[in-house]
Amino acid sequence: MTDHLFTLHGDVLASMRRGPKPFAKLAFVLSEAEEPADTALGHFRDRIAAAGPGDTLLALWHRTLTAWDLAEQADWSPSPARTDARRADAYDRLGFGADLRKVLDAAVPVFKEPGPTVISKEFASWYSRDEAAARSFYWKSYEQLLRRKGWPDEAVAGLDEASHAVVERLSDPTRTEAYGARGLVVGYVQSGKTANFTGVTAKAIDAGYRLVIVLGGTLNLLRGQTQRRLDMELIGRENILRGADPSDPDALVGIDYQDDEDWPEKFVSHGGRPSALGAFDIERLTTRDDDYKSLLNGIRALEFEKQARTRPLHDPANLHHAAARVMVVKKNKSVLSKLIKDLKKIGPILSEIPALIIDDESDQASVNTTDPKKWEDGKVARTAINSQISQLLGLLPRAQYVGYTATPFANVFVDPGDGEDIFPRDFLISLPRPTGYMGVQDFHDLDVEDGSAEERHIRGIYEDTGDRLQEALDAFVLTGALKLYRADRGVDDTPFRHHTMLVHESVKMAEHASLALRINSMWHRAAYTSQQGHDRLAALLASDFHRYADDGLPTPESYDDLKGYVSRARQLINAGGTPVLVVNGDTERDYAQPELDFDRTPHVWKILVGGTKLSRGFTVEGLTVTYYRRTTQQADTLMQMGRWFGFRPGYRDLVRLYIGREEPLGKSRTVDLYEAFEAICRDEETFRSQLTRYAALADGKPQITPAQIPPLVSQHLSWIRPSARNKMFNAELVEIRSPGQWVEPTAYPTGAAELRHNAEAWRPVLEALDPVPVTLRSASAEHGRDDSYEAVLGALDHSTLIGILCDLKWSAPAQFSPHLQSLVSAGDTGGIDDWLVVVPQQTSVRRVEATILGSRPLSLASRTRRRGDLFGAISEPKHRGAALRIAGALGESGDPLVESLVRERRGVLVLYPLIEKEPVLAGGAIDPGDVVMAFALVAPASSSTGQEGSVRFRAIDSSKGDSAVIDREEAGS
Q1: Which residue intervals of 864-952 are DSSP H helices?
Q2: 72 vs 87, 163, 433, CA distance in Å?
């Protein structure tokens, strides 16, 4: 039976391509005689109120409202995306009443998760939403495929917005003057960056880009993975077959994917040859198994037919009728040399081809790692792959370069002034954490007092625990059995097709072989078919997996219910006679193992032993148990080892990370790898949060451009650099301006002499404290908290505080010096008059108090150093609201005392005398050498003039162009 209401609403919404319009008027005009116009919208309201999950009308409105909610640019609404105000604007334009709004909001809540963060130069607008909708053949096919795969509307709309943000910052493919934009897209490790660049490629091809070169890793294994994804989700069956009859075996000779179990059902179909449907075909210049070898059909493969022969290819008369060419190539010197050689033969038409170069894992191999100090006579001595990418960009003047990575530090340290390099001079886009992604917050309790992430998923390896390798193997068998158990009880088993364990202890190949042999021996001695083995698994189930099981997923009450599945899991893991695969080596044959092919092998249930080659870019499907003990001193390298991050539908609660907590580094020290991961995750989150902070336009213009990004890269641990030394030639952080922001240094000295020096520096403040404590309260709606605490107050002028801060000793001076420089600069411009000093006091009967250098008795807070010399969180959240209010960063607190302390150019310094062990007091006084005089501060929000840049730094910029290059020594002159 025809669903008249759905048909009517589909017609009405289809007419709203530029945004919401009065619904009732359009419904009256578009309704057929046999359809109810429902201009009062009563039937619509009742239908939505009663709708179940499969209701087509609800699905239609879910897609539409979500797309309007998430649209970053909406001419019809002044309200920001992802807000209730944006949704209210849509309802106003639709003419919906309160009852209908309430029903729709209940059925389709506003999606408020953050969108992509964009740091960009100003750009010429050419890719409007109307332009994108007018040419969207391949994007629509891709979008429909994602919906069939079960992507929720929010994820599809989010991908649409993020990919649109990339394409609109590329050069208009039809413009007369050639321009090559350079950009960088930053995702999370194993978070779906391929989906984003597939979306970007689809939209770019639709818009007119006719040559796409994807640089897909350094191994054919990785290149083949990327080729298959693009073939399956974008290029499609018809372009792969190129007219061959799929039912004729002879016609299929030489056409790939005939041995792929997902062919043809899971490959996108366009419903016919695109060129026969009024669009254009895509010609593949590489295949799943064949990297670029040379143009198989000679130079003709890149000859574009022109309808208007006297006009260039980029002229619209020619461009939108020409077929697109796509190739996925390794970052390999030999392969890229062949490509460059062939392109040089083609001649002048190269300057007419709008091209797009997508560089997957762009911080690997692509970055120039030669020292600029060694450059002579103005010639840049480039590393091989960097040189070849530079040549490609030179041969294709209309080429746009977009790098993709989860570890961007090396990319933003590239010399901004090197016009031939890959610095993202035009834009940097940080993608949001995807819904359903299992990332850092799931493994680390960041800034959470009583979090459970570590308890649920982390199993530490200490000297007194032994190596726990047998336990990790048992966990792998047990989680495999639990997956099989869940699949038998209705849980979607697609994510359970592969079940893997990763063991990563060393970078040395000889040690991999030895470790694999050891694991094989342990496996065969584990006695999984004996009572001893079953008892061990039963104990692990009870002590671990039962305790942390997801209540929403089936979990057996007892081990007896699981025993049969353990047998099946053991058989799957041991298939082929061995449970272990070694994945390492420098040649392709080391990776040409059928058991490692997640695409063509029905079930990969194996323990993978390897090193670097198992980290970057390689997706370990079904990864559930990780055993990690390898040390490294580069943050980006360590982050790429984090294969345990990713999507784990149906088995998030089963994921376990066995990680070294006391691993040797050098000859005389040990390091905690879990804390190391936490530190680099903090570095990354700091980077992202500061990008977000600077992304908002100021007076319609960008606050900072990509050339000013390097100062935002932080380093929480002294022994882990953001990137390798040879990728960090071009940046020194000088200043971060943080008016109205809570700044909390953690790098305090450890020696008694330095601690006494710091306490002495604070003596003027200690002597000026009021004798009587007060109670400060903050109930600001913006802060979302209602806190109160007792504190002792004092005050000092700005110049006095600067004198104190400049005199302090630090374990890592670079952590605070950029903030100190900003305070010096603010004082020079008259942006700060004075500071209120707040010393929180404990009221518990168990509090510890002491006088410091003759001060009144002060509370001593106990804190520990969590990462080397660095403390973890020092402040308490309840102390922040009043300080932020007094500094002008929050609205009214509701406390008359706090309000009386507010001044226009007043900052707040919160002082925390800390102890790290039980104090020794003499007559109520403590030795200043036993006290860490820690602090946090909030510079007055009013000190932000809006006329200056937010960051200042010194960087090696060979062009001294639009980069803010500054010397710290000159900052105050």
Answers
A1: 880-886, 896-901
A2: 13, 12, 17
Q: How many CB atoms are closer than 10 A to CB 245?
A: 10
Q: Kindly give, in sequence order, each residue whose CB lies less than 8 Å from that of residue 669, ignoring residues fewer than 6 positions away.
A: none
Name the nearest CA neighbour of 870 among 728, 715, 738: 715
DSSP string covering 559-580, please?
GGGTHHHHHHHHHHHTGGG-SE
Q: The tokens of 797 are what?
A: 């002028």
**Residue 830 confidence (pLDDT):** 82
Cβ neighbours of residue 790 under 8 Å, at least 6 residues apart? 773, 774, 775, 776, 840, 841, 842, 843
Omega prior to 424 cis, within 30 of 0: no
Task: Report pLDDT digits (tens) over 473-493.
Answer: 999 999 999 999 999 999 999
DSSP labels, 530-557: SHHHHHHHHHHIIIIITTT--TTS---S
Which pair of structure tokens corresponds to residue 281?
A: 């075909």
639-649 CB burial, b ≥16 within 10 A, e <16: bbbbbbbbebe
How many other C-beta atoms are found inside a 10 Å radius of the C-beta of residue 843?
10
Residues belonging to the chain: 973
**Quick check: helix, strand or coil at residue 324?**
strand
Q: Across the strands, what pairs with 908?
A: 836, 938
Would you place residue 726 in the very low, low, confident or very high pLDDT band (cuts 50, 70, 90)? very low
Start-to-end CA distance of the chain, whole Å, equals: 80
Contacts 24+ apart (CB under 8 A), 600-603: 600/259, 600/260, 600/261, 602/261, 602/497, 603/497, 603/498, 603/499, 603/572, 603/575
DSSP 490: T
Residue 535, Cα to own-chain centre: how many angstroms? Answer: 42
Q: Round to whole Å and give the CA distance between 248 and 262.
A: 19
Residues 6+ apart with CB under 8 A from 117: 429, 430, 432, 688, 691, 692, 695
**Residue 833, CA distances (Å) to 82, 451, 817 in order:** 38, 40, 21
State the Cα–Cα distance between residues 53 and 903, nearest whole angstrom.
54
Between 291 and 875, where is the model more confident? 875
Give which of 340, 325, 251, 254 is closest to 289, Cα–Cα.
254
Q: How far is CA 89 from CA 84, 125, 235, in A?
A: 9, 25, 38
C-alpha torsion sign, points 319, 320, 322, 328: positive
Strand partners, 209: none
Say whether 384 sits in a helix, a strand or coil: helix
Residue 725 CA from chain centroid, whole number:
23
Phi, psi of 124 (to 5 degrees): -80, 125
Residue 437's pLDDT band (cuts 50, 70, 90): confident
Q: What is the pTM of this model?
A: 0.73
Contacts of 969 (CB under 8 A, 6+ apart): none
Helices (H) and strands (E) in the chain, counts: 30, 33
Largest CA distance in the chain: 97
Taking Cα atoms as reference points, which of 9, 137, 131, 126 lies closest to residue 62?
9
Q: For residues 613 and 590, what is the distance between their CA atoms, to the nearest angstrom?
A: 10
Res. 186 pLDDT band, cuts 50 70 90 = confident
Percent of the chain with pLDDT over 70: 84
Q: Alpha-carbon distance 175 to 550, whole Å? A: 55
Nearby residues of 510 by Cβ (< 8 Å), 6 or more positions away? none
* DSSP per position, 401-442: EEEEES--HHHHTS-TT-TTS----SEEEEPPPPTTEE-HHH
3-state SS record for 75-101? CCCCCCCCCHHHHHHHHHHHCCCHHHH
CB-side exposure of 247: number of CA atoms within 13 Å? Answer: 0
What's the DSSP call for residue 855? P
